[in-house]
Amino acid sequence: PPVQIMFCTLNTHKADMDKLLGAQIGLEDFIFAHIKGQRKEVEVLKTDDVLGLTITDNGTGCAFIKRIKEGSLMDQTKMICVGDHIETINGKNVSNCRHYEVAKMLKDLEKGQMFKLELIEPMKAFEKLEPRSKGGTLPEAKISRGRETLRLRTKGPATVEEMPSEVEEKAIKKVDELLETYMGIRDIELAATMVEAGRDKKNPDEFAVALDETLGDFAFPDEFVFDVWGAIGDAKQGRL
Questions:
Q1: Strands across the sheet with 159-162, in order?
Q2: What is the pLDDT of residues 57-102, one digit of tens each?
Q3: DSSP codes of every residue in 28-50
Q4: pTM for the full model?
Q5: Element (H, E) at 142
Q6: 10 bridge partner residues
Q7: Residue range of the domain that includes 84
Q8: Phi/psi of residue 7, each to 5°?
Q9: % helix / strand / coil in the chain, to the nearest 5?
Q10: 3-class state of residue 230 by DSSP
Q11: Does one domain contain both 224 and 174?
Q12: Do both 55 and 106 map to the same domain?
């Protein structure tokens, strides 16, 4: 059932966060669905304001851990792993929360206090499988010039489009950095969606309207929207 799917990866059965399925799929890509596996509980003493987690979500109520910063508090808690779905925080169910809401809840936890997480790890599968032949490899899930992709949208039908240009890739990287500055998260898929929203816009007002139509749930502050518009403009002018 779809509710059991935590996230999907392109061209690998491993929980590789660099190969997460985003909004764009190459026409020759293979998609692997990672489903809910073992549940686990862990108690953590918050000894640092920064936990060292990067959280994302699948858009349908499953926030999961995308990165764990090396040497961080969470890195020292070995039961917590990349790919784990955060189901509850101190008994509060966060299954229907977006990743930025979960990140804020964790950030707002009081320093010096214990907190409890209930997690669901992705089911382990294909761990001992090897390719049948060393001669062939799966298509690379990376951006390449002139390659068409299937673009999935929350509103409207899927369409076949060109991959982002080199200029747009630079803008996406900069917007990803801005997301971390303003919201404490990094999300390359979200950054790509924002850059796409500004692709044919002529001024920041048009861009703000497009963001509101596409990503209204985020309620981005005006200052952030202007900075993102500026990053897109800098990329187009070759200043990045």
A1: 24-26, 148-151, 159-162
A2: 887 889 999 999 999 989 998 899 999 999 999 999 998 898 989 9
A3: T--EEEEEEEEEEEEEEE--SS-
A4: 0.56
A5: none
A6: 31
A7: 36-122
A8: -165, 170
A9: 30, 25, 45
A10: helix
A11: yes
A12: yes
CATH of the domain at 64: 2.30.42.10
What is the Cα Rg of the chain in Å? 19
Distance CA(4)–CA(122), nearest Å, equals: 10
Q: Please check whether residues 170 and 118 belong to one and the same domain.
A: no
Strand partners of residue 89: 92, 117
Task: Report the run of H or E that residue 105 belongs to, with start and end.
Answer: helix 99-108
Please give the angle made by the CA atoms of 45, 51 and 53, to the nearest 5 degrees: 135
Q: What tokens appear for 131 in the block?
A: 């390719």
Amino acid letter for position 102: V
Are residues 126 and 13 in contact, defined by beta-carbon separation less than 8 angstroms?
yes
Place of tokens 């214990």: 114
In the chain, what is the straight-line distance between the N-terminal and C-terminal CA atoms, in Å?
Answer: 44
**Co-location of 112 and 168 in the same domain:** no
